[in-house]
Specification:
By secondary structure, this protein is mostly beta strands. It is 6% helix and 64% strand. GO terms for molecular function: siderophore uptake transmembrane transporter activity.
Length: 807
């Protein structure tokens, strides 16, 4: 029935589109603003000049918001000329109105003061789905049919070179990147960041930038930088509403309101999303002892429900062309209810069942994460000189309650009469503060520029874990001090950096600099009545040489000393009792991991294609990784530890091809081979291994009303004790616009053939483990969007220039 309904919607949309195409007219809209103060220019003359007959022009006067609408244009190539008293004339060239795309939104068109009698000519280039420049990648989310109804995490998975591992951690070419939103760093712990990205609607994102060769401010980030750029809206008032629903139990609504005028802009986004996931799996572990071996086999299933409300307010105010302010207030929440079932079967050396039990788990959790950010930018009258101050504060409260009931059975599945009930309550409070000051200046020779800055980050976490066992027959809960914990974690990071960039000639530059960081962290372990303190200082130099040619070829060689610090997830000593046969906890004695990173990137960009190839070598010191060890009682302990050094050999490629104006494809692939030291191979039984990630996407626009997008990926991750294999993931979407493009209907299909599966092989000195899990990711989602955009109403007229001259 649902499928028939979707088919009916598509059929009606196609018929509507056919009717509209029978009387196709061209449309060009935009907004004219003043470059110096970002204010709208009213009364500017906008003329659309066809290439075929330059004497016939369609002329429009901009309204009070600077907006213009050039409608009823015949198909063909156009030149748009904008002029106003006291401003330099701006010409936008090579705009092609055609059957498959008959309308263009030129957004903001800045006019500069007429200090000299010159006009500006800009060649208009249509925005593709994926762009690449100097080795960096831009994913234009607004051009994708998959953006409506998606969240930021789902869109990141479709971005070239970006992957998520089995734990949901984001990586670029296998390394954890720095996340920015609108060029501002996001200083959150791993769980807070995951909640933020999963609650951020895809409809509010303009583009995602992947900076594999990051700027000096973030040169020491091991995975580069991912910058999520949000939509700012046009001059005037605008609003958007998105409603979506999916067959997997996914529903939600997101809204956007924006207002922009004379250097002042407000963007408000609010929404809520509901998700359901079902998963199942098994694990088979063989324990190997000197005189015998036994097995522990587990089967499991779970059902997870979550609801995520979110709110984001962004205010931009430009006092003048020298000073501007930005304020962001954000709130996201996650409420979840989960249930699970596990069956444990112990098999002795005679292949007989020695112990059998079943465990049911019920949990409920709530997370709240408000944050604020304030940015001030001052630009000097000297070219290239600016100072930027970014200050931020974030807070977090979470509570999670898990109840366990375990019943022991005989080999024939009859109850033994023995059971146990446990309850684990985890309360966490987080807060963090940061300030980042950046100064950039171009020196007097106009070929050398200076970039410097200082930063301070402070994070605090208060964690209370209470584990209780039910005492029978009283049916009262008694606290277990051994499995409970109470601690506070504090971390300070103080950094300073300086770098110089010199342009020897056009297309050839060298950048070099260094950063110094001091990290302090303190654990206050109240249960054990002790404190653990550590401090370390790191010097992090970096340099790169860039050479580009006029034919679109680019070559970059870079060296970076990078650092990876353990977070609270790796340091937290609290024991996770979720699986009684596999206990997990962190290691507060972990040291940071540093690496020497060498990269060589070669690329070529032309109008029809771009292609990049990268090779790299990394020497990683004090690697910290998750290690599983078997105990004498048959249980395993999973914790974090520093292992010896590791060598990494990398190769990656990303490319895009414009087959036609209607069809574009993109491909990225990355392979990294990890080689461990002889000690870890001998003692810990580590294995060298490779990680392979790949992504293929295509975008097809048969008309300006229809958009089809497909994204496919395959990933295989390696770890020191084995491999994690992940199958192909697919996301296919279709988008249709109707009612003058105010209404957008999107249909997305996720994993229609194969659902997400992970198979993990782990090999220890005295055990072998195979784990398998499958999550219900197949989903058919429909999204309905409506745009409330006010169009310009100033009169337009068609002018025959030759007739005007004769008169």
């Amino acid at each position: 029935m649902k499928f028939r309904f979707l088919l009916l919607v598509l059929t009606l949309a196609a018929l509507t589109g056919t009717a509209q195409q029978l009387k196709k007219d061209g449309l060009i809209v935009g907004t004219v603003i003043d470059t110096s103060n970002q204010k709208a220019i009213m009364g500017a003359t906008v003329a659309a000049i066809p290439y075929t007959d330059t004497s016939k022009q369609t002329v429009f006067l901009t309204d009070k918001n600077g907006g213009f609408t050039l409608s009823n244009l015949q198909l063909g190539y156009y030149r748009v000329r904008i002029s106003a008293v006291g401003y330099r004339t701006l010409t936008i060239d090579s705009i092609h109105l055609r059957a498959d795309r008959a309308d263009f939104n030129l957004n903001d068109l800045p006019l500069s003061n007429q200090s000299i009698e010159l006009s500006e000519v800009v060649i208009f280039v249509e925005k593709p789905l994926i762009e690449s420049k100097e080795g960096n990648i831009t994913f234009n989310v607004g051009e994708s049919a998959l953006s409506n109804g998606s969240n930021a995490t789902e869109l990141l998975k479709q971005t070239p070179l970006v992957t998520t591992d089995a734990d949901g951690k984001i990586a670029v070419r296998g390394k954890e990147p720095k996340i920015l939103i609108d060029d501002k760093p996001v200083e959150l712990n791993a769980q807070q960041l995951q909640d933020l990205l999963e609650s951020m609607p895809g409809s509010m994102i303009e583009k995602i930038e992947v900076l594999t060769n990051p700027p000096p401010q973030y040169a020491n980030e091991q995975g580069g930088v991912i910058n999520i750029v949000t939509k700012k809206g046009r001059v005037g008032f605008g609003a958007r509403v998105n409603l979506y629903a999916g067959t997997r139990g996914q529903t939600g609504i997101s809204t956007n309101f924006n207002y922009r005028r004379q250097g002042f802009a407000v963007n408000l986004n609010a929404g809520v999303g509901y998700n359901e996931f079902q998963s199942e799996g098994y694990s088979n572990r063989t324990n190997i002892y000197k005189d015998s071996s036994n097995q522990l086999n587990t089967i499991n299933n779970s059902f997870n429900r979550s609801i995520r409300p979110n709110l984001r307010l962004n205010i931009d105010y430009e006092v003048n062309k020298w000073n501007s302010f930005n304020f962001v207030a954000q709130y996201n929440q996650s409420n979840s209810n989960n249930s699970g079932f596990n069956r444990y079967t112990n098999i002795n050396r005679f292949d007989a069942i020695s112990r059998l039990s079943e465990r049911t788990i019920a949990s409920a959790g709530a997370n709240q994460n408000p944050s604020i950010n304030f940015t001030y930018i001052h630009k000097s009258k000297r070219p290239g000189e600016s100072i930027r101050i970014i200050s931020a504060a974030n807070f977090g409260w979470s509570k999670n309650i898990r109840n366990y009931f375990q019943e022991f059975l005989n080999a024939d599945d009859t109850p033994t009469g023995v059971d146990s009930t446990q309850r684990q309550t985890n309360k966490t409070r987080n807060n963090g503060y940061s300030i980042n000051v950046m100064y950039d200046r171009q020196l007097s020779n106009k070929k050398t520029s200076l970039s410097t800055g200082v930063a301070y980050y402070r994070t605090n976490s208060d964690v209370l874990l209470v584990t209780e066992f039910m005492k029978k027959p009283e049916y009262t809960f008694l606290k277990s001090d051994l499995l409970s914990n109470d601690f506070m974690f504090h971390q300070d990071i103080i950094s300073a950096r300086i770098s110089m960039k010199h342009i020897f000639k056009p297309g050839f530059s060298v950048t070099a600099g260094s950063a110094v960081e001091q990290t302090n962290f303190l654990f206050e372990l109240f249960r054990d009545q002790k404190k653990e303190y550590n401090r370390y200082i790191n010097f992090l130099p970096f340099a790169n040489v860039n050479r580009s040619w006029k034919n679109g070829t680019n070559l970059t060689f870079s060296y970076r000393r990078t650092i990876r610090r353990p977070g609270i997830g790796e340091l937290n000593p609290a024991i996770d009792y979720g699986d009684p046969y596999n206990l997990r906890y962190g290691n507060p004695d972990l040291l940071p991991s540093q690496s020497h990173t060498f990269d060589l990137v070669a690329g070529k960009t032309k109008s029809k294609y771009f292609a990049n190839v990268s090779i790299g070598y990394n020497l990683v010191e004090d690697v910290f990784s998750q290690i599983r060890t078997l105990q004498t009682d048959g249980k395993t302990i999973v914790t974090w530890d520093n292992v010896s050094n590791r060598q990494e050999f990398e190769a990656s490629t990303w490319a895009g091809l414009t087959i036609s104006r209607k069809l574009r494809t993109n491909l990225s692939a990355s392979y990294s081979y990890n080689k461990y030291g002889s000690f870890d191979k001998l003692v810990r039984k580590f294995r060298d291994g490779g990680t392979f990630t790949s992504n293929f996407s295509t975008n097809y626009n048969p008309t300006d009303l229809w958009t089809f997008t497909g994204a496919f990926s395959f990933n295989r991750f390696a770890n020191p004790q084995g491999t994690v294999r992940s199958n192909i993931s697919m996301n296919i979407g279709a988008q249709y616009k109707l009612f003058k493009k105010k209404v957008i209907i999107s249909i997305n299909t996720t994993d229609p053939f194969i659902q997400q599966q992970n198979r993990v092989f782990t090999y220890g000195p005295n055990f072998n483990l195979e784990s398998y899990s499958r999550t219900q990711t197949r989903n058919y989602r429909i999204t309905l969007s409506y745009n409330f955009n006010k169009t310009s109403t100033v009169k337009r007229k068609t002018v025959d220039v030759l007739k005007s001259i004769k008169k």
